[in-house]
Amino acid sequence: MDDLENNPFDQAVLGLFTDLVPPGKVLEAGCGPGRVTSWLHRRGLDISGVDLSPGMLAHARATFPDIEFAEGDMRSLDLPDASLSGLIAWYSIIHIPAELLPGVFAEFRRVLAPGGLLLVAFQIGDEIKRVRDIDFRRLDPDTVASLLDGAGFAPVARGRWEPRETDTAPQGWLLVRVGQAVLG
């Protein structure tokens, strides 16, 4: 996602999340430089961001001073149980080793209130790319869906699009809700 403002695919998925998330606090886990957090904030969400990288957080705080950004690990969020109405992991679970994903999704489930909405986005595939000592894992949507189901999430919607100009793999996303499969 180089330029969210010119990316209708990302905007559509993020807009769906914005339209469906219940009122309350929202977190972007693995927020990086804060572009998605800011985009969602400008659309009215009460959102904050968390990331492991002090450098990314410094950039996010300098660029978007009106949004709260905290250093933290999505495997162990410093939040009370059931304290969020929504959580987004926009291309951030790709940095988590496969064997740790069930724990991450259990942590997401822990901090989301009943009916809370989770959106995860990722590149589709089965390989690991290493760039400057950082692993980027491509994931299978059915595997991710199964792990989310095992963590107590019910499916709401899912999507896939083929590689575009700057993409190197198909992109996928899953929208799930805590404990209920139907909206409303």
Written account of the structure:
This protein is α/β, with parallel strands linked by helices and 184 residues long. It has a single domain, classed as Rossmann fold, CATH 3.40.50.150. 28% of the residues lie in helices and 32% in strands. It is globular, with a radius of gyration of 15 Å. The protein starts with 7 loop residues before the first helix and ends in a 6-residue tail after the last strand. 38% of the residues are buried. The mean pLDDT is 90.
Lay out the secondary structure.
Blueprint: H1 8-20, E1 25-29, H2 35-42, E2 46-51, H3 54-63, E3 69-71, E4 84-90, H4 101-111, E5 112-123, E6 128-131, E7 134-137, H5 141-150, E8 153-161, E9 171-178
Parallel strand pairs: 1-2, 1-4, 2-3, 4-5
Antiparallel strand pairs: 5-9, 6-7, 8-9
